[in-house]
Amino acid sequence: MTDMRDKHNINPSYNKAYKSKDYALNNVVGDSWESFKMLHAYFHMLKKCNPGTITEIKADRKNRFKYGFMALEACIEGSNTVIWQIIVVDATHLNSKTRDVLLVMMCKDGNEMIYPLTFRFANFECSKSWTWFLKQLCGVILKPELLLIILDQHTSISNGMKAIFPDAIHGICAYHLANNL
């Protein structure tokens, strides 16, 4: 709206500016909902080009996208051989019409750099989605009993951790704890 006003002396309403932006984005990158239909093909090619990669898609009863999981073979191999079994779990909300959530698990390598382990996206963050994600992760980690998992205090994550990794040590993220205080 500011660009239109400053560059062209036009004052569009918020609704008109939003619809115009949405229309332009759909023409450039495509519709957000339609992109999920291409996920099966993308995961197929990902596994074909990266043998050992694990992908999974879960749909609801009407065959609509619900959850997606991806662990690249190089990340799996590295996390099971050279990376400490300390995993940080967090989520972020994606900025799209679909209001999806990106859930990530990562470690730190020997150079103190962030090492991605798995990615998961879901239509929302809840105990069922986290439990599904953690079940997929369980198939990736060789020694789940040696894990130290650091997470925020989100109830959904805690519920999933207790159900899938009951013997793993759970810790609270100091950053999230400080922000909550």
From TrEMBL:
<protein>
    <recommendedName>
        <fullName>MULE transposase domain-containing protein</fullName>
    </recommendedName>
</protein>
<feature type="domain" description="MULE transposase">
    <location>
        <begin position="86"/>
        <end position="180"/>
    </location>
</feature>
<dbReference type="InterPro" id="IPR018289">
    <property type="entry name" value="MULE_transposase_dom"/>
</dbReference>
<dbReference type="Pfam" id="PF10551">
    <property type="entry name" value="MULE"/>
</dbReference>
